[in-house]
Protein backbone atom coordinates (compact mmCIF):
# COMPACT_ATOMS: atom_id res chain seq x y z
CA UNK A 1 0.00 0.00 0.00
CA UNK A 2 2.55 2.51 -1.24
CA UNK A 3 0.11 5.42 -1.06
CA UNK A 4 -0.12 5.21 2.72
CA UNK A 5 3.65 4.89 2.95
CA UNK A 6 4.10 8.00 0.83
CA UNK A 7 1.51 9.96 2.77
CA UNK A 8 2.76 9.14 6.25
CA UNK A 9 6.29 7.82 5.77
CA UNK A 10 5.03 4.62 7.40
CA UNK A 11 4.43 1.04 6.44
CA UNK A 12 1.41 0.58 4.15
CA UNK A 13 -1.74 0.40 5.25
CA UNK A 14 -7.59 13.78 19.63
CA UNK A 15 -9.50 15.38 20.87
CA UNK A 16 -9.25 15.42 24.62
CA UNK A 17 -12.29 16.06 26.75
CA UNK A 18 -15.79 15.25 25.56
CA UNK A 19 -15.87 13.86 22.00
CA UNK A 20 -17.83 15.88 19.48
CA UNK A 21 -20.01 15.13 16.46
CA UNK A 22 -20.96 11.61 17.57
CA UNK A 23 -24.28 11.92 15.74
CA UNK A 24 -26.13 9.09 14.04
CA UNK A 25 -23.15 7.13 12.73
CA UNK A 26 -23.86 4.08 10.60
CA UNK A 27 -25.10 0.86 12.14
CA UNK A 28 -22.71 -1.39 10.23
CA UNK A 29 -19.07 -1.31 9.20
CA UNK A 30 -20.21 -0.86 5.59
CA UNK A 31 -22.32 2.20 6.41
CA UNK A 32 -19.54 3.71 8.50
CA UNK A 33 -17.07 3.21 5.66
CA UNK A 34 -19.40 4.92 3.20
CA UNK A 35 -20.05 7.78 5.63
CA UNK A 36 -16.53 8.59 6.75
CA UNK A 37 -13.70 6.87 4.84
CA UNK A 38 -13.32 9.41 2.03
CA UNK A 39 -13.60 12.36 4.40
CA UNK A 40 -11.09 10.70 6.72
CA UNK A 41 -8.58 10.18 3.91
CA UNK A 42 -9.08 13.79 2.83
CA UNK A 43 -8.01 14.93 6.31
CA UNK A 44 -4.82 12.88 6.04
CA UNK A 45 -3.69 15.06 3.15
CA UNK A 46 -4.03 18.08 5.46
CA UNK A 47 -1.98 16.33 8.13
CA UNK A 48 0.73 15.40 5.65
CA UNK A 49 1.07 19.01 4.50
CA UNK A 50 1.49 20.19 8.10
CA UNK A 51 3.91 17.61 9.54
CA UNK A 52 6.06 17.05 6.47
CA UNK A 53 8.97 14.68 7.13
CA UNK A 54 9.20 15.38 10.86
CA UNK A 55 9.57 12.33 13.09
CA UNK A 56 6.97 11.70 15.78
CA UNK A 57 7.10 11.40 19.54
CA UNK A 58 4.26 10.74 21.97
CA UNK A 59 3.85 11.65 25.65
CA UNK A 60 0.87 9.73 27.02
CA UNK A 61 1.08 11.47 30.39
CA UNK A 62 0.51 14.80 28.63
CA UNK A 63 -1.74 13.24 26.00
CA UNK A 64 0.28 14.86 23.22
CA UNK A 65 1.76 13.75 19.93
CA UNK A 66 4.60 15.91 18.64
CA UNK A 67 6.42 16.25 15.32
CA UNK A 68 9.81 17.91 15.46
CA UNK A 69 10.29 20.79 17.90
CA UNK A 70 7.37 23.03 17.03
CA UNK A 71 4.29 20.86 16.44
CA UNK A 72 2.36 19.25 19.29
CA UNK A 73 -1.24 18.01 19.21
CA UNK A 74 -3.64 16.58 21.83
CA UNK A 75 -4.64 13.00 21.08
CA UNK A 76 -7.10 10.26 21.80
CA UNK A 77 -5.69 6.72 21.77
CA UNK A 78 -7.67 4.17 19.76
CA UNK A 79 -5.49 1.05 19.90
CA UNK A 80 -2.48 -0.81 18.58
CA UNK A 81 -1.65 -3.13 15.71
CA UNK A 82 0.98 -5.86 16.15
CA UNK A 83 3.21 -6.56 13.18
CA UNK A 84 4.17 -10.03 14.42
CA UNK A 85 0.71 -11.41 15.24
CA UNK A 86 -1.18 -9.17 12.77
CA UNK A 87 -3.82 -8.41 15.38
CA UNK A 88 -5.56 -5.27 16.55
CA UNK A 89 -6.01 -4.47 20.25
CA UNK A 90 -8.34 -1.70 21.38
CA UNK A 91 -6.83 0.78 23.82
CA UNK A 92 -9.62 0.20 26.38
CA UNK A 93 -8.56 -3.48 26.52
CA UNK A 94 -4.84 -2.73 26.81
CA UNK A 95 -4.72 -2.72 30.61
CA UNK A 96 -0.97 -3.35 30.73
CA UNK A 97 -0.06 -0.01 29.13
CA UNK A 98 -1.68 2.21 31.79
CA UNK A 99 -3.14 4.58 29.22
CA UNK A 100 -4.68 7.59 31.03
CA UNK A 101 -8.50 7.23 31.14
CA UNK A 102 -9.05 10.66 29.57
CA UNK A 103 -7.32 9.43 26.41
CA UNK A 104 -9.74 6.50 25.99
CA UNK A 105 -12.98 8.42 25.58
CA UNK A 106 -13.27 7.97 21.82
CA UNK A 107 -12.28 4.30 21.92
CA UNK A 108 -14.93 3.65 24.56
CA UNK A 109 -17.56 5.54 22.53
CA UNK A 110 -16.79 3.30 19.57
CA UNK A 111 -17.00 0.22 21.79
CA UNK A 112 -20.44 1.31 22.99
CA UNK A 113 -21.58 1.86 19.41
CA UNK A 114 -20.23 -1.54 18.39
CA UNK A 115 -22.09 -3.25 21.20
CA UNK A 116 -25.32 -1.40 20.41
CA UNK A 117 -25.30 -2.35 16.72
CA UNK A 118 -23.28 -5.59 16.88
CA UNK A 119 -20.24 -4.32 14.95
CA UNK A 120 -17.42 -6.81 15.72
CA UNK A 121 -14.68 -4.39 14.65
CA UNK A 122 -15.65 -2.03 17.46
CA UNK A 123 -16.91 -4.33 20.21
CA UNK A 124 -14.27 -7.12 20.16
CA UNK A 125 -11.24 -6.19 22.24
CA UNK A 126 -8.86 -7.87 19.80
CA UNK A 127 -9.12 -9.44 16.35
CA UNK A 128 -7.03 -10.54 13.38
CA UNK A 129 -6.39 -7.48 11.26
CA UNK A 130 -4.49 -5.98 8.38
CA UNK A 131 -2.85 -2.58 8.20
CA UNK A 132 -5.76 -1.48 6.03
CA UNK A 133 -8.13 -2.26 8.90
CA UNK A 134 -6.11 0.05 11.11
CA UNK A 135 -6.37 2.88 8.59
CA UNK A 136 -10.10 2.30 8.19
CA UNK A 137 -10.61 2.55 11.97
CA UNK A 138 -8.65 5.81 11.95
CA UNK A 139 -10.68 7.27 9.09
CA UNK A 140 -14.01 6.33 10.65
CA UNK A 141 -13.00 7.65 14.07
CA UNK A 142 -11.70 10.96 12.72
CA UNK A 143 -15.00 11.41 10.91
CA UNK A 144 -17.33 10.45 13.74
CA UNK A 145 -15.54 12.65 16.27
CA UNK A 146 -14.71 15.47 13.85
CA UNK A 147 -11.02 15.09 14.63
CA UNK A 148 -8.50 16.92 12.49
CA UNK A 149 -6.87 13.64 11.43
CA UNK A 150 -5.59 10.32 12.70
CA UNK A 151 -1.99 9.16 12.91
CA UNK A 152 -0.51 5.68 12.61
CA UNK A 153 2.65 5.84 14.72
CA UNK A 154 4.90 2.92 13.82
CA UNK A 155 7.19 2.04 16.75
CA UNK A 156 8.80 -1.03 15.21
CA UNK A 157 6.95 -3.91 16.87
CA UNK A 158 3.61 -2.38 16.05
CA UNK A 159 1.59 0.71 15.27
CA UNK A 160 -0.13 3.02 17.74
CA UNK A 161 -3.28 4.58 16.31
CA UNK A 162 -4.46 7.95 17.60
CA UNK A 163 -6.75 10.74 16.52
CA UNK A 164 -5.67 14.33 16.98
CA UNK A 165 -7.09 17.79 16.78
CA UNK A 166 -5.40 21.01 15.72
CA UNK A 167 -6.41 24.34 14.23
CA UNK A 168 -3.16 24.24 12.26
CA UNK A 169 -4.24 21.05 10.50
CA UNK A 170 -7.80 22.31 10.03
CA UNK A 171 -6.51 25.48 8.37
CA UNK A 172 -4.66 23.36 5.80
CA UNK A 173 -8.01 21.98 4.68
CA UNK A 174 -9.31 22.58 1.18
CA UNK A 175 -12.37 21.22 -0.57
CA UNK A 176 -11.50 22.11 -4.15
CA UNK A 177 -12.36 19.82 -7.02
CA UNK A 178 -8.77 18.66 -7.47
CA UNK A 179 -8.65 17.32 -3.91
CA UNK A 180 -11.99 15.55 -4.24
CA UNK A 181 -11.26 13.99 -7.62
CA UNK A 182 -7.95 12.74 -6.21
CA UNK A 183 -9.17 11.39 -2.87
CA UNK A 184 -12.31 9.60 -4.01
CA UNK A 185 -10.69 7.25 -6.58
CA UNK A 186 -8.03 6.47 -3.96
CA UNK A 187 -10.49 5.50 -1.24
CA UNK A 188 -12.64 3.24 -3.41
CA UNK A 189 -9.51 1.40 -4.53
CA UNK A 190 -8.56 0.66 -0.91
CA UNK A 191 -11.90 -0.42 0.59
CA UNK A 192 -15.09 -2.08 -0.60
CA UNK A 193 -18.16 0.15 -0.45
CA UNK A 194 -21.09 1.41 -2.47
CA UNK A 195 -19.36 4.10 -4.51
CA UNK A 196 -22.50 6.17 -5.07
CA UNK A 197 -23.40 6.35 -1.38
CA UNK A 198 -19.80 7.10 -0.42
CA UNK A 199 -19.46 9.88 -2.99
CA UNK A 200 -22.66 11.61 -1.90
CA UNK A 201 -21.59 11.46 1.75
CA UNK A 202 -18.14 12.79 0.90
CA UNK A 203 -19.11 15.80 -1.18
CA UNK A 204 -21.96 16.74 1.18
CA UNK A 205 -19.46 16.82 4.05
CA UNK A 206 -17.22 19.02 1.91
CA UNK A 207 -20.04 21.56 1.61
CA UNK A 208 -21.31 20.76 -1.88
CA UNK A 209 -24.97 20.88 -2.88
CA UNK A 210 -25.84 17.48 -4.30
CA UNK A 211 -28.45 16.42 -6.84
CA UNK A 212 -29.05 12.95 -8.25
CA UNK A 213 -30.57 11.98 -11.58
CA UNK A 214 -30.66 8.35 -12.64
CA UNK A 215 -27.09 7.11 -12.00
CA UNK A 216 -25.45 10.53 -12.09
CA UNK A 217 -24.60 12.69 -9.08
CA UNK A 218 -23.85 16.39 -9.52
CA UNK A 219 -22.12 18.34 -6.75
CA UNK A 220 -21.96 22.15 -6.90
CA UNK A 221 -20.09 24.63 -4.72
CA UNK A 222 -18.88 28.20 -5.37
CA UNK A 223 -19.24 27.88 -9.13
CA UNK A 224 -17.49 24.52 -9.31
CA UNK A 225 -19.36 21.45 -10.55
CA UNK A 226 -18.24 17.87 -10.03
CA UNK A 227 -20.09 15.12 -11.88
CA UNK A 228 -19.90 11.44 -11.00
CA UNK A 229 -21.53 8.64 -12.99
CA UNK A 230 -22.20 5.16 -11.61
CA UNK A 231 -23.31 1.82 -13.01
CA UNK A 232 -26.44 -0.09 -11.98
CA UNK A 233 -24.81 -1.47 -8.81
CA UNK A 234 -23.39 1.85 -7.68
CA UNK A 235 -19.81 1.54 -8.93
CA UNK A 236 -18.05 4.67 -10.22
CA UNK A 237 -17.64 4.75 -13.99
CA UNK A 238 -16.70 8.39 -14.55
CA UNK A 239 -15.65 11.37 -12.39
CA UNK A 240 -14.95 14.83 -13.72
CA UNK A 241 -14.89 18.44 -12.58
UniProtKB/TrEMBL annotation:
Residues 1-23 are annotated as: Disordered. This is Uncharacterized protein. It comes from Chitinophaga terrae (ex Kim and Jung 2007).
Amino acid sequence: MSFFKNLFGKEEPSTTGTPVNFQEPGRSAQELTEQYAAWGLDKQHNLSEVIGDNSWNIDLDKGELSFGDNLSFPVQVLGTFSHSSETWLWAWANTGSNIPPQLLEQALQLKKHGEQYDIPMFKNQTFDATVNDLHLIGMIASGIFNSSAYYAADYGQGILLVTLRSEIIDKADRSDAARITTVFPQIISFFEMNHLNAFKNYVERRGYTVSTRDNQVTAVKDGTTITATFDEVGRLTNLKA
